[in-house]
Design a protein that fits this description.
Elements lengths: L1 H6 L2 E3 H4 E6 L3 H4 L3 E3 L12 E3 L1 E2 L2 E7 L5 E6 L2 E2 L13 H5 L7 E2 L2 H9 L9 E9 L5 E8 L7 H8 L20 E12 L2 E16 L3 E10 L8 H16 L3 E6 L4 H15 L7 H5 L4 H11 L3 H16 L3 H23 L10 H21 L1 H11 L5
Parallel strand pairs: 2-6, 7-9, 14-15
Antiparallel strand pairs: 1-4, 2-3, 5-8, 6-7, 10-11, 11-12, 12-13, 13-14
Helix pairs in contact: 8-14, 10-11, 11-12, 12-13
Length: about 400
């Protein structure tokens, strides 16, 4: 009975946490944008909070400045004492490391902060602007800003806003803003609040420049607020990121991505395919000849793709054009397997020679290659559909 009683005081931190964007003081009592975190395991161990019943954690973000107000309330808390095995979790102490110099617990202070916001101020200069129409037909303006890390107040602002990524990007961490190799683009939404235009940050992309003989750029963090996802904004921000890097880094060799998740990978593949689709060396007939140096040169010199990404885009496009012809699809499958086999053999060459494999080893190796091929084709289906829709082509 005692264990059951204590179990009643365990709650899932994702379930009890709300994130609220506040555009004016009225939104505190009547929020218009409220959403759940995707994850909280870096804040609360195993996404569990102990010691409370009826717990709610409301985290309010000022939509422009990203100042934060936290309101914690509950029906009951376990009292500390010798008869209890554990102290109730100190929620504020657990939140503090992830919201540096940002958390407010005084509502009046937070309201005052919102009223003092400078809604027309952005840190940097605009590199792109566009409008987007949502499913309700509402048109909204957006700006992509190349942020000046030396601008007064920017570092403090970014530290506040980047707190959000802890709840939406797995294994996310904060960057060192004192390192001059960082570059950051911010996405701003244009809002009309009262009789004023307000520019509110809704996403960002951070990039790190590795300088040697040439420069390699690595996209490190990429974030769009959840309530504006699936509207094509990430696609626009990534496109602007490519263009920004290619136009500002003279000796740029390649653009890579640090630990991309499945959703980002799909978006990146779609964008990269759109760049390459009409290139002369990536036509249907050229693709059927196999992967060539001219393909690699085009992708690397013109678009700054890595070798690995160039090969992947080649395979996606060849798969697209091969899928309706059994003979070409068989040739495509053999080409992909041959490439995968060469990579696997290179990795295993130090420990075991393929010539010494027994029959069972060879069978298992063949099954593994087929599984890898099937997985690859499955994972690129959305990009194949994107090609069909984007270019309105009919495979024959």
């Amino acid at each position: 009975m005692v264990s059951m009683k204590f179990a009643d005081y365990n709650v899932n931190s994702n379930d009890v946490t709300n994130i609220i964007f506040v555009y004016n003081t009225h939104n505190i009592m009547l929020p218009t944008i409220k959403f759940k975190p995707f994850m909280t395991h870096q804040i609360f161990e195993e996404e569990n909070i102990y010691g409370y019943q009826g717990l709610t954690i409301d985290i309010y973000f000022a939509a422009h400045s990203a100042y934060c107000f936290v309101d914690i309330y509950y029906d009951e808390v376990l009292k500390s004492g010798p008869k209890f095995c554990l102290e109730p979790d100190n929620i504020m102490n657990l939140l503090m490391p992830w919201f540096p110099n940002n958390i407010m617990t005084d509502l009046h202070e937070f309201k005052s902060c919102i009223k003092k916001d400078e809604p027309d101020y952005i840190y940097g200069e605009c590199v792109d602007c566009f409008t987007n129409t949502n499913e309700k037909g509402t048109r909204t303006g957006f700006r992509i800003i190349n942020c000046d890390l030396s601008s007064s107040g920017f570092k403090e602002f970014h530290k506040r806003f980047q707190s959000l990524i802890i709840m939406f990007i797995d294994a996310a961490n904060f960057i060192d803003l004192e390192d001059p190799s960082w570059r950051i683009l911010y996405l701003y939404e244009e809002c009309r609040i009262g009789n004023k235009n307000k520019y509110c940050p809704v996403g960002f992309c951070s990039m790190y420049l590795f300088k040697d003989i040439t420069t390699r750029a690595r996209i490190s963090q990429f974030f769009i607020v959840p309530f504006l996802q699936r509207l094509g904004l990430g696609y626009k921000l990534l496109d602007a990121t490519y263009n920004y890097l290619k136009s500002t880094v003279d000796d740029l060799e390649e653009i890579t991505v640090e630990s991309p998740n499945r959703i980002f990978t799909r978006m990146r593949d779609n964008l990269d395919v759109s760049y390459i689709f009409n290139e002369p060396y990536f036509t249907k007939h050229e693709l059927f000849k196999g992967f060539t140096d001219n393909m690699l040169k085009t992708a690397r010199l013109k678009y700054k793709f890595s070798n690995e990404q160039t090969r992947k885009i080649y395979e996606i496009l060849r798969c697209y054009w091969s899928q309706k012809t059994s003979r070409e699809y068989e040739r495509f499958m053999l080409d992909v397997k041959k490439h995968r086999k060469a990579k696997l053999m290179a990795k295993q060459s130090k420990s075991k020679s393929c010539n010494k494999y027994n029959v069972e080893d060879r069978i298992n190796f063949s099954i593994m290659l087929q599984d890898e091929f099937d997985k690859f084709v499955h994972n690129i289906q959305s990009t194949l559909n994107y090609i069909q829709k984007k270019f309105q082509t009919h495979v024959s």
